[in-house]
Amino acid sequence: MDNKFSYRINNAKASAIREILKLMNDPEMISFGGGNPASESFPIAKLADISNKLMREEPLRVLEYGITEGDPKLKEELRKFMNRNFVNVHESDSMMITSGSQQIMDLLGRALINDGDVVISENPSFLGALNAFKVNGATIKGITMEDDGLNLAELEEALKTIKNVKLIYLIPNFQNPSGITTSLEKRKAILELAIKYDVLILEDNPYGEIRFANEHLPSIKSMDTTDHVVYAASLSKIVAPGMRIAAMVGSPELLLKCVVAKQSSDVHTNAWAQAMMAEFLRETDMDAHLKTICEIYREKANLMLDKMAETFAPDVKWTQIEGGMFIWVTLPKRLDMQDFVKAALKHKVAVVPGNAFLDDDTKPCNSFRMNFSKPTKEQIIQGVAILGALTKEQNDD
Amino acid sequence: MDNKFSYRINNAKASAIREILKLMNDPEMISFGGGNPASESFPIAKLADISNKLMREEPLRVLEYGITEGDPKLKEELRKFMNRNFVNVHESDSMMITSGSQQIMDLLGRALINDGDVVISENPSFLGALNAFKVNGATIKGITMEDDGLNLAELEEALKTIKNVKLIYLIPNFQNPSGITTSLEKRKAILELAIKYDVLILEDNPYGEIRFANEHLPSIKSMDTTDHVVYAASLSKIVAPGMRIAAMVGSPELLLKCVVAKQSSDVHTNAWAQAMMAEFLRETDMDAHLKTICEIYREKANLMLDKMAETFAPDVKWTQIEGGMFIWVTLPKRLDMQDFVKAALKHKVAVVPGNAFLDDDTKPCNSFRMNFSKPTKEQIIQGVAILGALTKEQNDD
Predict the structure, then answer these.
(1) Residue A94 in contact with residue A249, Cβ under 8 Å?
(2) Separation CA A140–CA A167 (nearest Å)
(3) pLDDT band at residue B14 using 50, 70 and 90 as cut-offs
(4) From the list A105, A242, A251, which residue is nearest B66 (CB)?
């Protein structure tokens, strides 16, 4: 038949990263391209025990329909977990469990965006979020990233001149893809601007708990008393991503609309995964668990950074990181990024071209993203050596 | 802050059914209102065994990110399961695993619908589907249901006169809420009209395997060689709904757009649930399993129908059913349906007002929906007796 698709879906692209990931089925490929957490950090034995207990003792909790808002026990455990440290979930906030953080972007997009509305994001930013906003009709306005967060003058100029900005999308900790952490001063300044121009901030914090240097910074959510922040928490990176469990926290008025959106999206999130995460949080000393995870990440990050320092040409630059999963590498002008990435693929090392993360992927970009959490230490050593050698060539590969 | 929501979400309503279901937290309430399968049909012990094996032997299959299209092993098992009988999944078809059938409606809505496009549905029809289309910008055009499926003349008139029809939404087996099964003749005629006017059919078949009288009819999908049918299969009613596992089958061109839509919705469906269902289908004699389930449903349906025949006033009418989970009851003019439903709630019996299932819920409607799968036999006997007594009153309750 003659399919007539919606213009929104015709504007959307299949994820460039996911297309690259398909190349990685090649077992010889060393992949620094994915966004997967370190699988050796998954608490496998404990999850198996909890699952077995749940399936034997509370099967209907797992097998019956649940409510759209999410398992009340999981919400209670998440509230405690988030409040123990640096996120501030207010008494007056609502919470909803979602099928991964990706669904938070999608539901917010659906609840807020009319065709042609604008979402302001860091530039570069997480592709999956930008796509979710675009599929819901948004135009993305990217704001230049600096070493301590986005450029404030550019942000205010955008808020002042663009009338229909619906959302400011931020990843303040160990941003994807840049690895950058927004400073305390900039967090405060961004919140002030959001209040001044009455625009909602989506504070996406999937990596915040994976800090392996310096001290935690307060979340923007924790500074807000005016309902200008909706907060996205995820268990994908600190427990396991296949679970697809995240939580959004915000004002009851906003969350109510997102509940309506979720009713028509998937009714509710998988019941087993919610019960599993409730019991895991309840039974686990999370500080000890996170310490173990951070140690794994610290070792891998330091190994990659050390090997990069050893083998990369001195005119190649990369971001300083204090946590998370990514390093953002910028090539000198003598090297063309797209050619470099292709040459790396030929040598069986995958990285992601940086332009994929821009508000407009046709803009010039000489950076690429590297992930250190998924590859083994051997792969890190071997793969960085290959990339290092390529940085010393003159694009004549 | 001053929230400015999208007009699409402002047009959507929280599910009327889910609002009613909240009343049912009252432990004394006998609920014929839900759409829950019979929980005594869940294969609990087998699922617990499979889960334990999976978590011990293949933890990374469950805990790692998966691909958007779904677990290849589950797709293979589902293809075999669907083809063993009366669904015809072509070699050339694509399949995607989704987070329940609800997500199929949502992804199709996203892939097909521009604001103001029209979805034709049976009237009454499944509220969750209508909401998913509406949230994606569609207007619903309902076609009168007759005892053997929708009115063909009305359908053709709609296809002829409305220019931007994007989808015909059908539940051919034991329709929700009417319980009606579309005849073979009407299935053929509807497909012919869809081809003639080049409009896609969404054949939603969550209840088809729960047939406890007469023979299975061929799916519309099985008669189509022109890619005018996309088929929705669900495991919610025949295994367990908390899993949130369904599958959509259709042309590669259409499914590719739905994969892009799902990438930005939730990346992929819960990995444990997919692996669980793959192993369950592989290990289980599904014909024997379905026979057991159908026996449970047959007993409950017959009990409810018998008790209705015994206790309801003779001028109350209801649909003949051959399977599924619902009975559609129409009151005589002397009784007002909304008053009746309120009186029933007062007497601690919940049913769903029929107007909730109409394309326009302000249209007059003197019917309500009853579910027989979730309540116990004792509740069926007790609840029907209460409703029966109310049918004999003169609305002066």
Answers:
(1) yes
(2) 10
(3) low
(4) A242
For testing the chain B interface, which of A3, A58, A224, A258 should be mutated: the one with the most B CBs within 10 Å? A3
pLDDT reading at B362 higher than 60: yes
Q: Which two tokens stand for residue B385?
A: 């007796």
Q: What is the mean pLDDT of chain A?
A: 94
Closest residue by Cα to residue B106 from B122, B123, B130, B126: B130
Tokens 């059938």 label which residue? B101
> Residue B211 is encoded by which pair of tokens?
């047939």
CB contact burial B102-129 (16+ within 10 A = b; e otherwise): bbbbbbbbbbbbbbebbbbbbbbbbbbb
Q: Which residue in this structure is represented by tokens 């319980």?
A: B179
The two structure tokens encoding residue B68:
């958007």
Both structure tokens of B164 = 């931007």
Of A99, A134, A253, the CB nearest to B99: A99
Please choose, from the candidates B219, B225, B246, B230, the residue with its C-alpha nearest in 3D space to the C-alpha of residue B87. Answer: B219
- Does A260 contact B66 at a Cβ distance shorter than 8 Å? no
**Cα separation of A353 and B50, whole Å?**
41
What is the torsional sign of CA B205, B209, B215, B218?
positive
Q: What share of chain A has pLDDT > 70, as a percent?
A: 95
Residue A231 — φ and ψ, nearest 5°?
Answer: -115, 135
Check A265 against B63: CB less than 8 A apart.
Answer: no
Of B86 and B274, the structure prediction assigns the larger pLDDT to: B274
Cα dihedral: B264, B267, B273, B279 (round 10):
120
Mean pLDDT of A131-152: 96
Judge whether B1 and A191 are in contact, CB under 8 Å. no
What is the ipTM score, two decimals?
0.94
Between CA B104 and CA B82 the distance in angstroms is 17
Contacts of B52 in chain A (CB under 8 A): 48, 51-52, 55
Question: Which whole number is the average pLDDT over A89-107?
Answer: 95
Report yes or no: B61 and B278 within 8 Å, Cβ to Cβ. no
Contact A118, A133 (CB under 8 A): no
A244: its two tokens? 């697809």
Tell me how close the Cα of B395 comes to any Cα of chain A, in angstroms. Answer: 34
Q: In this predicted structure, what is the pLDDT of residue B18?
A: 63
| Chain A residues lying within 8 Å of B13, measured CB to CB | 260
Helices (H), chain B: 7-11, 16-23, 44-57, 59-63, 72-83, 101-112, 127-135, 152-161, 184-196, 220-223, 252-265, 271-283, 286-311, 337-346, 377-391
Which value, to the nearest 10 degrees, does the dihedral of the CA atoms of residues A174, A177, A180, A186 take? -100
Pairing of strands A149-150, A165-170: unpaired
- Find the Cα–Cα–Cα–Cα dihedral B381, B382, B384, B390, rounded to 10°: 150
From B63's Cα to the closest Cα of chain A, the distance in A is 4
Q: Whose CA is closest to B129, among B203, B197, B183? A: B203
| pLDDT of B396 over the 50 cut | no
Distance in angstroms (rounded) separating the CA atoms of residues B10 and B323: 36
Which residues lie below 8 Å from residue A360, measured CB to CB, with a gap of 6+?
A: A140, A142
- Is the model's pLDDT at A396 over the cut of 50? no
Nearest to B111 among A5, A242, A271 (CB): A5
Query: If 0-12 CB within 10 Å is exposed, 13-18 middle and 19+ buried, where does residue B299 land?
Result: middle
What tokens were used for B349?
A: 């019996």
Closest Cα in chain B, distance from residue A103 (Å): 5
Q: Report CA B386 to chain centroid distance, whole Å.
A: 27
> Chain B contacts of A373, Cβ < 8 Å?
none
The pTM of the full predicted model, rounded to 2 decimals, is 0.95
